[in-house]
Sequence to fold (184 residues):
Amino acid sequence: MSKAARNAILEPLINETDLHAGISQLVDRIADDFDGDELYVIGLLRGSFMFTADLVRLLYRRNVRLVIDFMTVASYGAGTESSGRVDMMRDIHIDLAGKPVLLVDDILDTGRTLDFACRHLAAFNPASLKTCVFLDKPSRRVVPFEANYVGFTVPDLFVAGYGLDYDGRYRELPHLSVVAGGEV
Ligand code: IMP
Ligand code: MG
Fold:
């Protein structure tokens, strides 16, 4: 573990109860919008793994049938600053042509990742393409981008937990914390 990650202080921001209540409301909206359709859910790895897992289980309970795949893109280095470049690391392996697609990510920050991922998926000619993020940090936007479904809007703080990492750590936290005292 890096010195920065070792010295980081984590302060709870969204506890598990509030987190699940927010996601549940989000799922109600998605389920209403996709009533009757088989929805193609694409999770962006690695940050959205926990959010996607909870989301799809709740959608199942709302009787939304799903096809699930994952895509890995990389936009961040080890610290808290974006590299500004997005690379495709692992593409999807299903056909999206003519299908309703929901792209899921952990956090919408500068907007570069989702902008890149949406352009990539749009090239497969889906019937519709919507985006769902656990968190939105609108103050950090570099590329204009709005997600269709947002769990929580957060201020300009570096957060970790519930899938989001700080220097590869803390993804396993079942709640969301603010990282303080770490160095980049
Ligand atoms: P964007 O391309 O700047 O919108 O960044 C999106 C990606 O940056 C997310 O999928 C996260 O992996 C990472 N990221 C942005 N802000 C945070 C944060 O506060 N904590 C952890 N990861 C973050
Ligand atoms: Mg990510």
About this structure: The chain is about 25% helix and 35% strand. The two ends are 13 Å apart (CA to CA). The first strand starts at residue 9 and ends at 14.
